[in-house]
Amino acid sequence: xxxxxxxxxGNMLVDHVHQxxxxxxxxxxxxxxxxERSTGGAPLNVLLTLAKMRTxxxxxxxxxxxxxxxxxxxxxxxEQYHVNRQHVQRTTFAPTSMSQxxxxxSGQRTFFHSPGANRLLDLPAFDRLDNSMKIFHxxxxxxxxxxxxxxDEFGTRSARLLAQMHSLGFETSLDLVxxxxxxxxxxxxxxALKHLDYLVINELEAGEFSELAIRHENGEPHIEHIxxxxxxxxxxxxxxxxxxxxxxxxxxxxxQAPGVWIPSWHLAQEEIVGSVGAGDAFCAGFLYGCHxxxxxxxSIQLAHVCARASLLAxxxxxxxxxxxxxxAFIRDNAQAAISL
Length: 340
Fold this sequence. Notes:
Layout: E1 6-10, E2 13-20, E3 32-40, H1 42-53, E4 59-66, H2 69-80, E5 84-91, E6 97-103, E7 109-114, E8 135-141, E9 150-151, E10 155-156, H3 157-167, E11 171-176, H4 185-193, E12 198-202, H5 203-210, H6 223-235, E13 241-246, E14 249-254, E15 257-263, H7 278-291, H8 296-311, H9 323-332
Parallel strand pairs: 1-4, 1-8, 2-6, 4-5, 8-11, 11-12, 12-13
Antiparallel strand pairs: 2-3, 6-7, 9-10, 13-14, 14-15
């Protein structure tokens, strides 16, 4: 029987999202005009977006949350959207991870993050996963302290985990966290790459890894450098697909074919409500395309339209639409891909 379903593992947190009038100068006050609570982190954002797409795929979460109100909220959200939460464990040793997210009128977000229980997530949490599932997605590297620790054989414990998942027949996927100037990018990312089928990152993360200027001086994406960064990542071991996305579009590349730049659908600044979780929504759409063996172009188009829907809501999942709605939008708003 063919394997079917997506497991998403790693950072689980609650985003306390605040819309502010403007970003204040240091020492000054900024008014909060709206606040809400939502789930956050790679596994929850990806899984709940897929659940709201009504794809019918089996979905499973793996993570660690505290014995507190935010942990209760995460468990309740997984139950509400029929995501298997059997491997979401709870601990009294740390609170549920939490972010205070400030969203300014342009939609730009700033995070104040408390790692909490995510620091403690380690290899035993991944024992006895359902081997009938097809894709194992891990996020975010550089925010999972125990999995980011060194490993004598694999380089890092996260690389050991991804190798283990690969040996069990899973297709493996990884996402990173955006951290400017973090010297750990190469040491923590490189060991994992040879155990990956899919790598989905944004242009900031690609720049940190490749040390290339990802934008021109005028602010436009430097597509040639983005392509070079993707080629570096494939050369470092990613087996099937590397995608580097930014607001203007995404570069997708495989080992077997030249890469392609696929523009996103433009949104006017005043249409953007918030960008929290847009990258995870992109990843959800892309992983669905990979799961269904869609061509690279169609997979990235679905990723773009999932991210676009996310931008129309303040939190990570409220904007998510059904797969049928996304496919209708793509059909009615064709975009041309560009090869270098």
